[in-house]
Write a structure and sequence with these properties.
The structure is a single chain. The chain is mainly beta and 125 residues long. The protein has a single domain, classed as Cyclophilin, CATH 2.40.100.20. It is 7% helix and 47% strand. It has one helix at residues 22-30, and strands at 3-9, 12-18, 33-39, 43-47, 59-61, 66-70, 75-79, 92-103, 116-123. The protein has an eight-stranded antiparallel β-barrel. The two termini are 16 Å apart.
Length: 125
């Protein structure tokens, strides 16, 4: 199913590709979404209204640019560097998350944004 989506905040527009997991399919079905996201180290997360359980591929250690859904908080997560629980430079979630995709574009501009951002997640038309 891989599908491309846009993540927009202010003038910043990032393209991402969703994977073929059940959580990614559920996320895609909810688009477009407006999400208020908070920063936690080099991760943004925000309740996007998704209700899913933990999948078999859930993990804690992420890759830079990876997108995930945190089942505990019904949150979409964007990882772009270390978080307060990281060991070294790896992005690390607070608890297991379901990977749903990865940014195609360079995530480094996210480092310049505020502690709370408004994000629109939409399908590419």
């Amino acid at each position: 199913m891989s599908a491309n989506i846009l993540i927009t905040t202010g003038d910043l527009v990032l393209t991402a590709e969703l994977n073929d997991t059940e959580t990614a399919k559920k996320l895609k079905s909810l688009l477009p979404l407006q999400v208020s996201m908070s920063r936690w180290g080099d991760e943004y997360y925000g309740d996007c209204g998704i209700r899913v359980g933990q999948e078999s591929g859930a993990k804690v250690v992420m890759e830079i640019g990876e997108l995930a859904v945190w089942p505990v908080g019904s949150a979409l997560c964007i990882f772009f560097g270390p978080t307060p629980v990281s060991v070294g430079d790896e992005p690390r979630a607070a608890s297991s998350v379901n990977p749903v995709g990865k940014l195609i574009d360079d995530p480094s501009p996210l480092r310049k944004l505020k502690d709370v951002i408004k994000v629109t997640v939409s399908n590419i038309k």
